[in-house]
Fold DNA (cytosine-5-)-methyltransferase.
Amino acid sequence: MPVFTGTVSTCKVDVLIAGFPCVSLSPLTTTPGSIEDSDCSSGLGWTSTFQYIERHRPRMVLLENVQTLFASRKADGGQSPYEIMRKKLVSLGYSVNAALFNTADFGPPQSRNRAWVIAGLKSYDTEMAILDAARFRCSSFPLMEIINQDLVSKNPKKQAVKKHKFNKDAKWHSGYKERCKELGGKAGRLRKSAHVDKIIAELRPVVCDVSERELAILATAVCEMKMKFVHGEFLALRLPDMKVDEVSSEFGLYMYDDGGMKGLAAALVWESHENLRHSRMVSLVQNLLSIPTLHKVQSSDPLAFTIDRIIKQNVDAKKLPVSSFEWSEILLRLGDHGSSYSEAIKLYNNNPQENGDKSASGTLMIDSKKTHSIKHWMTKCGSLAREVVLESMQDSPFQMGPFGESLAGMGQLFLQSSADGLQGSADALAPLAHEDCIAIQWDLQLTEASQGMLFRRIKIAFDRATAIVDDVRDRKRYRMKPDEVVALRNLCALWGQIRAFCKTRLPDFDSFEQKLHSGNSMDDQFAEILQTCPSKFAISMLPVSQHEAACQLKRQEETVCLEAEQQQSELRAAKWRYFVAALERDQRQLSLVASAPEKLDMLRHRKTMGWRLEQAKVGEKIMMAYSEKFIRCRHIQQMEHMHEILHEYRAFAETAGVKTTDICTITFVDLNTPLANSKEKMNELMKAVAAVNDVAPTKSIGCIELADIPKKSSKRGLADEERDLQESLWSLKQQCDARWILPFEVPQAAEAHSSRRRFSSGRLVVNKDAEETNVFLTSAELALCGRPLADQKIFIPLSKDLLLPESLQPNEDLRTAERQRPSQEAVTAQKGTDRYLALLRSLLTTSSDSLQQQAVLVVNLTGYVEELGSAVLQHKLDKNNFGGFNCEKLYYLSVSWLGRETFGHCRLQRDILQSWMANKLDYGTSFSEEAPTLTTAEIKSIPGGEATISGLDSLKWEVCERNGNRMVIKQDEHRYWSSQTGEIGESYAMLKQKHDKLLESMPEVGSATTEASENTANSEAQDDPNVSNATTMESLDALKAVEEIAYQVQSEVSGVQLLLTKSKQVWLVSLDKDKVLAKHCQLGGFGSGQYAKAAECGDGVPYKLEDKDKTPVQVDETSLRESAATGSVATMTLYKLLVLTEREKSVTAHKVSYFNVSRKDDSSVEAGCDAFNVEPTHEMKFKILQQEGSEKVNCKSFFARCVPAVSTSAHIRTVFRFRFERVGLSLKVQKPYVITRSSLSLQKGKPLKIAEGN
């Protein structure tokens, strides 16, 4: 259903999947026929399929048949059937492609070559679809684990097996029974019925709602599949052909043959019996069993033929008998053949097969309730409603769709029905004075248009409720309840009466009607009308029009008041009240407009962060994929496992199109790293170098960088260690006579006295047997010249740029007094990537052409900080070409077994990710540099945001108007109220003064889009220029007369000194002139110390962020911006610092020392308080190491002697300084300092107390 009538259907077909008969095309057939001959089964199947395609024009067509489809045949005039099909499909505007696949390559337990034809409209890439399908081949499937070995004949072609005797008690399908007997000729017959009975016993508790007859057929199919299949042979169940007669073709009542059982049997063999208990398999079994088999009827009467098909459908699928709507569709079409409704029902109910068959819920006869439902559909259902029902049956059967038999029996849903219990009331809602209105007939008869709207609304509500319900059988629980349907019915009938009236009077009528038809929150507009049942309807009764009606009423009231001279004083009072309320509303709206840019900036930043987070996820996937293919880092347990890793990578490169014989290898070893700090480790590394060289002696070379510092005390130091290196290599049959040297440059004068060497030296190692033929040793620039010839300076990295293991941890390497210094190996091993760029360039620059066609695998055995990996990555991204060698063919493999440090690997991954973000790395998906912008809808969602788009004039102002970029009281209002005397005039003057102050405190709002300030709701306040109310002494001598000064030092502000008395009071004094210290001005610090848990140390500075993300902090600007001046420090709130790292460093997950930081939910943006959650992981203190009186006191350590006074002061506060770690992307806390809370005014020579003592 719906019945095919030979015309184009109203349903839209996206995909058509068809497999027409192969009898006339098969090479085994005795009656070959042309694919264009409708008299043969294959020709009839293809012709019918093509007619369907021609009428419905699906977007994609998938056809399947035997492989003879591609062969030239005499029956087709020397052409292949595929060529004939392709020409016809191309004539309809399809692009066509085909392929030959074996079903066994895709998992099913069958070995069949099948031709697949895919056709799509011009916009569909059929060639790509064929290529995609080929990717899903699977190499093997666990068939023999599923098939019971006891049921497989050892030699079925030679061993004779007794014929199977069918169970006489079972109700067998004759056609299927005879075919099962015929199948026993080639591969052996079915064994005793005990096998079938055994499978029936296994299937009975698994498959639900299946008759004994169907269960016996299933068991026979499973047994047949297990018996017949022998590994390497073809498997096919050939069932009787089906030919549709003219009567069934006319009505479109196409039935399926027992071919459904073939698919079911294959599924049962493929799935184990345990898997059948899953709901997915139960649904598959039930769907296959619900397919009715071909039931021939020797009758030419269309009515009898149709009733017989319906009875067969009801008996075979008792869960889904023919519904009342389907009955009506059939009977309406039977009316053309002279058949009446009563004859059809009588013929159906009197059928002996229908009366004798019972379902779980009783007989399938048509009772009086279903009879009424059928009459409703036939006589009282309009075309619009019928179209909606037909549309709903495209996704699910009628019984499981939005309507069902329960709604079909409700007479109120059909034409000419009336509402019950509704009566007009004169005391209900009433139109406004002189307002147009119409009378309402509250019987609410249902018209065809109203019925169509009602059925559409029921379907929309059902589709929304079942959008996430996968099982079709569960959807009917989400149908509308009868009382809801009745309420919706009354609304649709009411709208049918008033629609024409509203169309000429309701503003934006089309949008209103569209929302009403889609059920989009417009039902509330009629709730009060349906509840009170007024006798007349007016537009003002709709809430959406009440504002306009209220404005009209207000104008009428003002007119009446002006005409009434005797009520002048009351009129003036009313106008005054309105003016005050309107001014308050305008001021509230103005406040929203003033705060809108700030909220928009928060929303814009939130959206940008969401976009960056998505970009970070994409970048991480690309980084992992790129590093897995080109830049690999592996850790192994022992050196012996390196052969496996090397072989794995070479094999991977071969799958990428690089032959193993075309791969050259360069092995790097740096004896400066901590991974080579002993003779034993050095010997292991040399064994690894020899092992790599021995794989391909003529194409492999080792590059050894000698140590800068001796690792043991000896007479000759480095010379003895170099001799040990030579002896180790000679014992491994390696030649290492070739030397190289690489000079360095010192970048800054501050590093001029560094103890690090100004050059690196090393040796080139090759296999002794390949010394004369090695491609690198005989032709590479580094081997021939002993140094790189390129005129390029190689700089040693600064000490501050060294990468240490603790760089990844936000709670380590906090730069305190007890910071552990890096080892000599950790320093000498880091000479920058410039040296490896030069070494690789010199090794790949050869005088021979043999290296140009090769790929080079760079193996690093001492990947401490992965500087070599960064150099390989840079060469690949720059696409350098050295002597004809293309650096895009470089591969990198870092193998480590002497240590497990991961910070070098992380640094390499970070370099790949940054290269992608800089659009230097193009690997599938490019990094998008365009941050998302706010849409108009998002801007308007913020109160006052519309003014940033269209200006202040776009908003509705009552008593204010725009004057430049400010909203002032309208001139007419000002003239009128300023001329008033008495109490109203005085009140207006006060309101005017208050409004002017409000304008002064607000920023100007432009008429165009206003960009939000960088300072957000949590940014620090502006400096307060007012003088603090701190205690001041007349002079320094006056202070000394009452307090004994313990310490007097110069603060960090020029000309301002810090004083600490014996009673722990802190004073400030300016000795040269009057000064004003700005807010957050830094005065000094607490000296040296370290961070420790609060429970483990007594005194100290508590590490707290008291105001969460509003807490002022300091940041070392040089760690955030390379252009910042050395030592520059900025003070800002933690919120602004976190946002700064998000914008400047693309940070998506914040890591702060000893704190967990995460962004609050999006709802905070609407309130104008975008913020972060800041929670401590541990209670920490900055433990001061300096003891009082043990050293000279200065401003850097001054406040260590008065920590309690600072914590309780109202004028100064503790601030913690942070440093951004570029590798770990973390904010690491440094020393605490002391800053001013607000502005302080100092007079020359007069001390100012800023902290109380004991």
